[in-house]
From TrEMBL:
Source species: Kiloniella antarctica
Pfam families, per the entry: Ribul_P_3_epim (PF00834)
Annotated HAMAP family: RPE
The family this protein is said to belong to: Belongs to the ribulose-phosphate 3-epimerase family.
Coiled coil: none
Active site, renumbered: D37, D177
UniProt protein name: Ribulose-phosphate 3-epimerase
Gene that produces this protein: rpe
Keyword ATP-binding: no
Textual note on the cofactor: Binds 1 divalent metal cation per subunit.
Length: 220
């Protein structure tokens, strides 16, 4: 069942020179999760930061850290991100070598597990793992950079995954990430998404606008 809309600001769009403060501001502005984008310059053509910076800023909020790993291979680093304070770890099936095993590894460490689907990844890839998942992430841009335009076909993927989630009867968040703004947010919600990841749109206009930006994306 689709739940009330939650916003997970992507700190990829934050001011990295004051990352802890930015996370505190997001917390006070009503963010539901803090979305932490980890990029390795190999799985995606950009490098962000790793577990030590994640750990350093973790005390800035009590809100869940939703860590999206765009790295390959991934298994080697799961424990480090759990130790850094991740509450949810989302991986890509293409990160290899065996995503079923990676999901089991994440869960064995007491953390929620998510699977991210790139724009070119078919929705049926979730069929044999959905019973173990806590979150499905529809990438509505190709991963690697903030500030890209929402790919409209993502709405069909969200609708298909909404049906699959509802058929399980389980509590699985349906998250969408990439090009979410005041125009695309309501479309993603209508299609069935219940967690919106937003970088550019959350940080638009500076700190005094974070709360309004989050509210508007929630449709309030
Ligand atoms: O995972 C990402 C890119 O790989 C980012 O979270 C995503 O692109 C959000 O940025 P924006 O809201 O600026 O589109």
């Amino acid at each position: 069942m689709q739940k009330k809309t939650r916003i997970a600001p992507s700190i990829l769009a934050a001011d990295f020179s004051q990352l802890g403060l930015e996370i505190q501001r997001l917390d006070q502005a009503g963010a539901d999760y803090i979305h932490v984008d980890i990029m390795d310059g190999h799985f995606v053509p950009n490098i962000s930061f790793g577990p030590s910076i994640t750990k350093a800023v973790r005390p800035a909020t009590a809100k869940p850290f939703d860590v999206h790993l765009m790295i390959s291979p991934v298994d080697l680093y799961i424990e480090a991100f759990v130790d850094a304070g991740a509450d949810i770890i989302t991986i890509h099936p293409e990160a290899g070598p065996h995503f079923h095993r990676t999901i089991q590894l994440i869960k064995s460490l007491g953390v929620k597990a998510g699977l991210a689907l790139n724009p070119g990844t078919p929705v049926d890839i979730v069929d044999h793992v959905i019973e173990d998942l806590d979150l499905l992430l529809v990438m509505s841009v190709n991963p690697g950079f903030g500030g890209q335009s929402f790919i409209p076909d993502s709405l069909n993927k969200i609708a298909s995954l909404r049906k699959k989630i509802d058929a399980t009867g389980r509590d699985i968040d349906l998250q969408v990430d990439g090009g979410i703004n005041f125009e695309t947010a309501p479309k993603a919600i209508s299609a069935g998404a219940d967690v919106l990841v937003a970088g550019t749109a959350t940080f638009k206009g500076g700190p005094e606008n974070y709360a309004d930006n989050i509210k508007r994306m929630k449709g309030l």
